[in-house]
UniProtKB/TrEMBL annotation:
Gene3D superfamilies named in the record: alpha/beta hydrolase (3.40.50.1820), TolB, C-terminal domain (2.120.10.30)
Domain of life: Bacteria
Alphabetized InterPro entries for the sequence: 6-blade_b-propeller_TolB-like, AB_hydrolase_fold, Esterase-like, Mycobacterial_A85_antigen, SGL
Ranges of residues in domain SMP-30/Gluconolactonase/LRE-like region: 406-543
UniProt xrefs under SUPFAM superfamilies: alpha/beta-Hydrolases, Calcium-dependent phosphotriesterase
Coiled-coil stretches noted in the UniProt entry, renumbered to this chain: none
Protein name as it appears in the record: SMP-30/Gluconolactonase/LRE-like region domain-containing protein
Classification via Pfam families: Esterase, SGL
């Protein structure tokens, strides 16, 4: 009896995940075909070769754009059988499966020792692999045909795209969906959200970003990997907690005693497909509840999203606002009002800042600074050799200016221009600091650089406008593909917040220098300049690197030179 019991236990241990009928061939269901190909023409990952496996269900007509599911590390989960079964039972839409191996580059001296691209491609939390999938892999798949000559036509609608993988492949699936926003359904099994490269930051970013329209299914097990790179079990738990915090439409299955990428991930795949495609096509993935992020809840207004205002804005332009909440677009050629259909140039010089009474501080190359009235009439020429990058006005009529003393200098300095138009240096030796912002109460001057994640805070001396006690006060998030936050513009509101144009989008920092909320721009374009507009100074205007200006009404009031000085009371955090 003891022997029989032991045999039964061993059998159960070897077959602890019983696959359902969804994962097995069924009578009456017609199954499709696999197309195998090699892809070696990548520009995103030059020199790589990879094997591609496309599964085309038998029901596909070769004429209608089909949904697509992209797999990492080749086809897995018995996905071809599962998908055909669920299509037949009308539980999921028509879907073509695309699987590819990670790329590798073959060496010349020892071909059997290739450069394996797997962790580079999969574990890097950047848009790079998503670019490869969208611009190279899927178009390559569409160039192929079935054995019957059917064309492969994949839908370009993000609502029709899913991506999945196990281990680093799951991290890849998350990174592609998160960084491109072109995939709205993700099955992550045993996701490597750990320190293999940078995917360990993803759960933190989920807490901070405005929620994205993506639906997730997460799987892990108590016997998942635990290595020098981290603990997969706890990393996936942290991600699930982040999803719940941010209000995502998600579910998860954490299985006791499940190992890394064992049969549990296959057993769960049919249910994952049902969850991810529930209600298709009408039930598009979207957050199912409000985020717990207090800053997002304070700042965002229901139904108020980014709107396109105008396109075709030239490179190196910046946005400025006057005391009426009107937006000026300023460049080397001059400045004009945003809503002026005549596009009348107010002043033919580069405007750096707008001061009290709508006075303009401008710069003319090789000549110096210029003070002009609101109509562009020159009131004062200030001879100087400095090459200014940015400036900010104070309530007393003065300006802080950041720039280089000479064009070729590596470091920047900050000068104060008094309302008597006298220049004095207040800080120097700053590496790549190009953007300034002044707190709403004028207590602090903030200075931000391009190739760093930090921002400086200086105490503003009320009498002499000296900059005191400067320190690297701000912590700004940096995308993996960037060497710095790429902060190019900064403004403050009357509640102690700072809004930064960065490589990650609009990062909103609290009064204690921490990036607490992040707003992605439409299409993930990069913001380059920000300004407050509207009569209530509550409309955030954003110029992006695609030449578009966007606007969004927020539940706040931008800092300005008009009205009563705001009282800001914030705890130490």
């Amino acid at each position: 009896m003891l022997f029989l019991l032991l045999v039964c236990c061993l059998c159960q241990a070897q077959n602890k995940y019983v696959l359902t009928a969804d994962s097995k061939k069924k009578v009456g269901v017609e199954y499709g075909e696999h197309i195998y190909a090699r892809f070696d023409k990548s520009v995103v990952f030059p020199g790589t070769i990879r094997e591609v496996d496309i599964y085309v269900p038998a029901q596909y007509d070769g004429k209608t754009p089909a949904c697509v599911c992209v797999f990492q590390d080749g086809m897995s989960y018995r996905a071809d059988t599962v998908v055909s079964n669920l299509i037949s039972s009308k539980e999921i839409p028509m879907m073509i499966l695309v699987a590819a191996s990670p790329g590798q580059v073959i060496g010349d001296f020892d071909p059997d020792s290739p450069r394996a691209n797997r962790t580079y491609e999969y574990d890097t939390p950047s848009p790079r692999f998503g670019q490869f999938v969208l611009e190279e892999l899927l178009p390559f798949v569409e160039s192929l045909k079935t054995s019957e000559g059917k064309s492969i036509i994949l839908s370009k609608n993000k609502n029709d795209r899913m991506i999945t993988g196990c281990s680093s492949g799951a991290a890849c699936a998350f990174n592609v969906a998160w960084n491109t926003e072109e995939f709205t359904r993700v099955y992550s099994s045993c996701g490597s959200l750990t320190g293999l490269r940078g995917s360990f930051t993803n759960s933190t970013l989920v807490h901070k970003f405005e929620p994205k329209p993506i639906r997730f299914y997460f799987q892990s097990g108590s016997h998942d990997m635990w290595t020098s790179f981290g603990d997969w079990w706890s990393a996936n738990q942290a991600m699930v907690r982040a999803m719940d915090f941010a209000g995502y439409d998600f579910t998860y299955q954490f299985t006791e005693n499940a190992d890394h990428c064992d049969d549990n991930v296959t057993q769960l795949f049919p249910d994952a497909m049902r969850f991810l495609w529930k209600g298709y096509p009408g039930n598009s993935p979207s957050p199912k509840k409000e985020t717990h992020n207090s800053m997002l809840r304070q700042v965002l207004l229901d139904g108020k999203n980014f709107e396109q205002v105008v396109s075709g804005i030239e490179d190196n332009s910046i946005l400025l606002s006057n005391n009426k909440g009107e937006i000026l677009v300023a460049s080397e050629k001059g400045a004009k009002l945003l809503d002026d259909k005549r596009e009348t140039v107010i002043i033919d010089k580069k405007v750096l800042a707008i001061g009290i009474d709508n006075e303009m501080l401008a710069y003319e190359s090789r000549k110096g600074l210029v003070i002009a009235d609101k109509n562009g009439h020159i009131r004062k020429n200030i001879k100087t050799e400095i090459c200014p990058c940015n400036a900010v006005a104070l309530r007393d009529g003065g300006y802080y200016i950041v720039g280089k003393e000479n064009q070729g200098d590596l470091f920047t300095s900050i000068w104060y221009l008094s309302n008597e138009y006298e220049l004095s240096r207040k800080a120097d030796g700053l590496k790549s600091v190009y953007s300034l912002a002044l707190s709403g109460n004028n207590n602090w001057l903030y200075a931000f650089g391009y190739d760093t994640r930090r921002g400086f805070s200086y105490k503003v001396n009320k009498e002499h406008k000296d900059l005191l006690y400067g320190q690297e006060f701000y912590y700004i998030h940096v995308p993996d593909q960037s060497d710095g936050a790429e902060t190019t513009s900064a403004i403050c509101d009357n509640f102690g917040r700072t809004y930064l144009a960065t490589a990650y989008g609009i990062q909103i920092c609290d009064y204690n220098g921490r990036s607490e909320a992040i707003l992605s721009m439409p299409g993930n374009v990069k913001p380059v300049s920000v300004a407050w507009g509207g009569e209530a100074m509550n409309v955030l205007y954003v110029l992006c690197n695609n030449g578009w200006i966007y606007k969004r009404t927020l539940n706040t009031k931008g800092a300005s030179l008009e009205g009563v000085m705001p009282v800001i009371r914030v705890g130490a955090g």
